Structure formats: structure tokens, C-alpha cells
Inverse folding.
């Protein structure tokens, strides 16, 4: 028996204790992946190989491999906390410009709005978004939270679904000309909020008058005025021009006649935004959409049921202040604003490797690319083999503490047993010396 065999066993058992101890120490480390000590036996060999009755020369540490199994994903409540459910790594850029890869999603924002790791030394990488919230899948960039206000947008369209009760009585407009101040001169009214280019809100009211069995006149006023700013009643006044809605015998809209143009869309042109102060209207100097506002009337019906209108859908809005951040499963970061709008401000990128075991641990629960790992592939979450993003959550360490404690006992027994072989070899050597 050789002292070297026992020494190699002591060395191997000591390394096993180190690996197990490191796993136990990181049982609460977010995104940590447990390691496993792998050993190989040693045989003396020549060019012709080993002999048939060769005795081994001990053991050595062949590798310390990491187990990239999924850890438990638990809610954390952090706004920028993220976990990967499935394959892939978050991509971070260190202060030296090198890329790092991690499963720890404990992120935060620095003073400039950049999303960094919990030590603030590396920035999360992803894809930027343009001013309209469209993701630009070019090269990776530092993801940054833009905390500026959302600029207003002038209204360009209105869309809704409604019904006009066919049982409503006909109003003779010769006897009762339309007057927005007299409810007996119109059958019903719909209100919609429009926005000018400065984000000012303006109520648009459409007054509907049943003039025949299957015909209705629609009068559109904004801020109580005609779209061009003239008064609809009083002196001086410009009587509003009606648009005639025609329905067939089944209650379906056949068309809207405005002047000589028939369509299912009512286009409001020449709108002059203004304000009303103490009953006096004045233009506010804001621009409106130069192409007009398209009011979709195609979904209006005339059935013998209650008159109703579903909430209208418009594309205009006032200035919005950022109120929150949401992250979906695809890793898209949505900023929500006080004007009920949301806008994509970026998208997280994940990395994948052909050989994850080839990654080099670099501390801070991160890894670096090596020749053995191969080059990374970058893509958005839920693409190919990449996992999904779980917002407001973190991935726990995948260390199984029970298994590690058992391995700790086994490594201790291995150490003691190898120490015993050295002690036995020493006793034999003493016996031989005494014989001489």
C-alpha cells in the first residue's frame, strides 16, 4: 500500500467536503446552481497500456460540474425582480464591457434609470424600443427606464358599437328644428372625449334624431360648438350640418350620407380646438389631427331594443406621468401612465449555450463564456428552448439541503477511511523497521 494512494484519497475527500460546504453555504443564494465533485481513478500506464494485474495509484479530482436544473420560483414583490422559468440566462454587461450570464434576477435601477444587478456593477442587456413602443431587435443594449412623461397624442379615430331603438318616435324637424339645449328636438346623444395635440380634452357629443322609420340625423358638436368653432345656435350662428344614417329592414346600417358623400365612417375635418370660459368659446391655439377624425359608424344597429352604446375606443390621450412598470412572459417592459396608456420601453434578451457545463463561474452568481461553452445565442424569452420571464419573482438556489447533508457525512467518512489507510501503512512501515 502506498502513502500516495491514501494522500490522493484525503485530497479527493477534502475537495468533496469543499464542494458540499460551498453548496450548503449558498442554499439561500438567488439563482445559485449546485456543484458536484467528480472523481477518476489513477493507473500507472506506459505506451502499451496498463498490465492485467495493475493496482491503481489512487484517485484525482476529474471535474467540478454545476447542475443547471431549475430552482423553485417564488414571488418576491420586487418591481424589477425577475425569474426565468425554463432555459436561458440573463445577459449583463460588466463595468469593463465584458458580458456575464446569470440566473439571478434581483435587479434594480440606478440613478440614471439603468437596470443593474443587485450590486450595481453590471447592467442588464436587452432590446430597445422606439418612441412608439416598437421593439427594435438589433444589437444588445443597456436597458434603461425612461421616467419622462408620455407626450400627448391628438385623436384620429373613434370606434364603438351601439344600437338605436327602432321603436323611438319620429321627430318632425320642421316643427322642432335641432337645438342642443332642447332635449325634445333630439332622440338620444352619445359623448366621446377627444384630445388635441397639446393633450387638452374636448367633449364631442353626437345628437341623434329619428326622422323616419329607417333614417336618423346625426349632429356632431365639439365643446358645444360646430367643429370649425362656430356656434350652432344663437346670434350669430351656423346651423350644424346633419349626417343621415340609413338602415335596412333588418336594422343594419346601409350608409351615412354627409353632404354628397356616403360611407360608414363619419370624418370630422376642420376641427378648431378651443376652450369655453364662462360660456365664452375661444380657440386655444392647439393643433388637431390634420387628416381629420374618423368616427366609425359601421357597428350601429337599429333594433327594437334599448338604446345603448359600448364604451368608445379612441387613440388620443393627454400627457401621462409614469405610474408603474409591468413585465410580461416575453420579457417586454411596459411602462404604465396616469392617462391609462401603456408603452413598451424595452425587452429582455436571454442567452443560451450548447454546453452550459463549459461556462466559467465568475462570482456574483454569474458565469462567463469560454471556448468549451461555445458562443452564446441571444433571443427573446419563450423563443426556441428559452424559458419565460416570471415578474416580481426570484429563482431560488437549486441546492437540495437534505442531499448535501448526506453527502457531507459520506465525505467525512471517506476522509476518515483514507486517513486510516495512511495510519495502517505507517504501522506496517514501523513493523518492517523493527524487524530489521
Amino acid at each position: 500500500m502506498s502513502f500516495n494512494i491514501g494522500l490522493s484519497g484525503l485530497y479527493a475527500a477534502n475537495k468533496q467536503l469543499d464542494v458540499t460546504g460551498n453548496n450548503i453555504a449558498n442554499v439561500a443564494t438567488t439563482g445559485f446552481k449546485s456543484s458536484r465533485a467528480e472523481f477518476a481513478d489513477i493507473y500507472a500506464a506506459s505506451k502499451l497500456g496498463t498490465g492485467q494485474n495493475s493496482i491503481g495509484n489512487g484517485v484525482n479530482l476529474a471535474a467540478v460540474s454545476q447542475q443547471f436544473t431549475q430552482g423553485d420560483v417564488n414571488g418576491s414583490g420586487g418591481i424589477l425582480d425577475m425569474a426565468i422559468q425554463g432555459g436561458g440566462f440573463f445577459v449583463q454587461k460588466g463595468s469593463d464591457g465584458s458580458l456575464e450570464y446569470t440566473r439571478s434576477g434581483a435587479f434594480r435601477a440606478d440613478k440614471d434609470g439603468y437596470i443593474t444587478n443587485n450590486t450595481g456593477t453590471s447592467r442588464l442587456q436587452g432590446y430597445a424600443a422606439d418612441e412608439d413602443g416598437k421593439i427594435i431587435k438589433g444589437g444588445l443594449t443597456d436597458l434603461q427606464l425612461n421616467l419622462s412623461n408620455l407626450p400627448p397624442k391628438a385623436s384620429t379615430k373613434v370606434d364603438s358599437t351601439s344600437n338605436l331603438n327602432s321603436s323611438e318616435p319620429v321627430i318632425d324637424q320642421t316643427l322642432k328644428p335641432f337645438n342642443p339645449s332642447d332635449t325634445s328636438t333630439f332622440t338620444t346623444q352619445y359623448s366621446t372625449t377627444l384630445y388635441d395635440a397639446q393633450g387638452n380634452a374636448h367633449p364631442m357629443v353626437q345628437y341623434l334624431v329619428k326622422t323616419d322609420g329607417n333614417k336618423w340625423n346625426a349632429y356632431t358638436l365639439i365643446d358645444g360648438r360646430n367643429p370649425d368653432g362656430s356656434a350652432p345656435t344663437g346670434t350669430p350662428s351656423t346651423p350644424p350640418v346633419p349626417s343621415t344614417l340609413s338602415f335596412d329592414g333588418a336594422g343594419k346600417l346601409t350608409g351615412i350620407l354627409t353632404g354628397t358623400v356616403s360611407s360608414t365612417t363619419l370624418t370630422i375635418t376642420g376641427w378648431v380646438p378651443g376652450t369655453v370660459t364662462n360660456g365664452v368659446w375661444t380657440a386655444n391655439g392647439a393643433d388637431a389631427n390634420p387628416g381629420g377624425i374618423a368616427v366609425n359608424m359601421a357597428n350601429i344597429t337599429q333594433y327594437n331594443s334599448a338604446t345603448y352604446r359600448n364604451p368608445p375606443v379612441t387613440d388620443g390621450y393627454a400627457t401621462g406621468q409614469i405610474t408603474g412598470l409591468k413585465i410580461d412572459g416575453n420579457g417586454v417592459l411596459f411602462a404604465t401612465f396616469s392617462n391609462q396608456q401603456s408603452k413598451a420601453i424595452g425587452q429582455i434578451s436571454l442567452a443560451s449555450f450548447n454546453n452550459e457545463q463549459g461556462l466559467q463561474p465568475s462570482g456574483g452568481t454569474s458565469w462567463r463564456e469560454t471556448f468549451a461553452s461555445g458562443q452564446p445565442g441571444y433571443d427573446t424569452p419563450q423563443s426556441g428552448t428559452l424559458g419565460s420571464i416570471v415578474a416580481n419573482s426570484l429563482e431560488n438556489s437549486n441546492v437540495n439541503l437534505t442531499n448535501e447533508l448526506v453527502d457531507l457525512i459520506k465525505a467525512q467518512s471517506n476522509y476518515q477511511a483514507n486517513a486510516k489507510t495512511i495510519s495502517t501503512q505507517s504501522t506496517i512501515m514501523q513493523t518492517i523497521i523493527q524487524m530489521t
About this structure: The chain has a mean pLDDT of 90. The longest strand covers residues 201-212. The two ends are 19 Å apart (CA to CA). Helices lie at 3-25, 401-435.
